[in-house]
Design a protein that fits this description.
This protein is of the alpha/beta class. It is built from 13 helices and 13 strands. Helix 1 crosses helix 13 and helix 2 packs across helix 3.
């Protein structure tokens, strides 16, 4: 039985973490021996892991202090394949694997459009990140990104040849769960004729301030209410903005919700207002429930998921008027809901896991620094 080890910071409710949980659960169902190795065993998604998965807690407050216990883990557990997600863990996994003198295949997965990331806003940190990536990534056995836009950006940012990077979209849709919710009795939506949903961590990159301003304009033309699911540093600021705009009685912030399917199923429209996205799991989740989408045309995922606007409206980033108009027009239009569901079926957990395993278990992966083997 092949042992596959997934390496992440923790399992808080982010997109990359959801991807890891979906992959791990599907791989264990297929008979693989799965370890999920965490810098710190914490996060809302821990309870979603299959009980057959071993959770390895490195119990470190800082990433740097996790390197030594991670090397010990590799020496003792000897996984056949490592899937490391999110830099610097991607580079750490490569270095630790060599220091442990391990024979594990190391696949790194990046979800971020690094050229636009707030993490590397400072010039010194930006060049340090680029340098470390350029020195370590050639020793990986495969590089995966979650969209073509992220792949092109990563190639430029990390000085990596684009043809060495595989693009595998995120495993989002669990077909076994789509029909699990047939009512909305237990959820209180602000009363209105139409209902808008948005989902994401309440942080600057999601630009919920623009969404609230656009929603305030849209309310002047259509009777709509809004729910934003998620927690984050900007919650108090967004609540204050809602009060200032005079829409607080029409907007609800329920916080983090594990099962979002009933919200998607009840909503008349889903809106993504992000400044940047690696992929955009929430867009796929919405379409899987047959809910129309309006999204900002940010790097990198929305345009790819929506196929250049075929499956939903794309608007410029941070454009309040354009977003408001798109909301109003989408509410009034008739949508082909079955077409949305069909497009979402391209991102099922079953299909995407098979694509990951094809890369992870390929005998041709040693090493991308000497062989150009990954799909473009």
């Amino acid at each position: 039985m092949k042992k596959i080890s997934l390496f992440l910071p923790d399992l808080r409710g982010g997109g990359a973490e959801k991807v890891a949980v979906n992959l791990a659960n599907e791989m264990v169902r297929r008979g693989f021996d799965i370890d999920v190795v965490l810098i710190k065993s914490q996060g809302e998604l821990l309870v979603d892991l299959d009980p057959l998965i071993d959770i390895i807690d490195l119990d470190s407050e800082r990433i740097r202090s996790a390197v030594k216990p991670y090397i010990s883990y590799l020496q003792n557990s000897k996984p056949d394949v490592i899937l490391a997600s999110m830099w610097p863990l991607t580079s750490i996994a490569i270095i630790a694997n060599r220091l442990a003198k391990s024979q594990s295949t190391v696949i790194v997965s990046e979800h971020t459009t690094w050229s636009r990331s707030q993490i590397v806003k400072k010039l010194g940190r930006r060049w340090m990140t680029r340098l470390i990536m350029s020195l370590t990534f050639p020793f990986a056995d495969g590089i995966i990104t979650v969209s073509k836009g992220v792949a092109s950006d990563l190639a430029r940012f990390s000085f990596t040849k684009r043809q060495l990077i595989s693009v595998i979209y995120n495993p989002v849709v669990d077909e076994r769960k789509l029909e699990c919710c047939d009512s909305f009795i237990n959820h209180q939506w602000p009363k209105a004729k139409y209902h808008i949903l948005s989902v994401g961590t309440l942080k600057p990159v999601k630009d919920f301030a623009t969404l609230l301003k656009a929603f305030a304009l849209a309310r002047k033309k259509v009777d709509v209410s809004l729910i934003i699911l998620g927690e984050g540093e900007l919650k108090a600021e967004l609540l204050a903005l809602s009060d200032k705009l005079g829409i607080s009685s029409h907007v609800l912030f329920p916080g983090f919700v594990r099962n979002t399917i009933p919200y998607y199923q009840f909503a008349d429209l889903f809106v993504l207002s992000s400044l940047a996205e690696g992929f955009g799991n929430v867009i796929v989740e919405s379409m899987a429930s047959g809910t129309p989408v309006v999204a900002t045309d940010c790097q990198s995922g929305p345009r790819e998921i929506l196929n250049d606007g075929e499956y939903g409206k794309l608007v410029p980033v941070s454009d309040v008027d354009a977003l408001a108009n798109a909301i109003v027009n989408s509410i009034k239009e008739i949508h082909d809901l079955e077409a949305l569901k069909q497009r979402a079926s391209d991102f099922t957990i079953d299909k995407i896991t098979s694509q990951y395993l094809k890369v992870m278990l390929s005998e041709k992966q040693k090493h991308i620094g000497t062989k150009e083997v990954c799909r473009g």
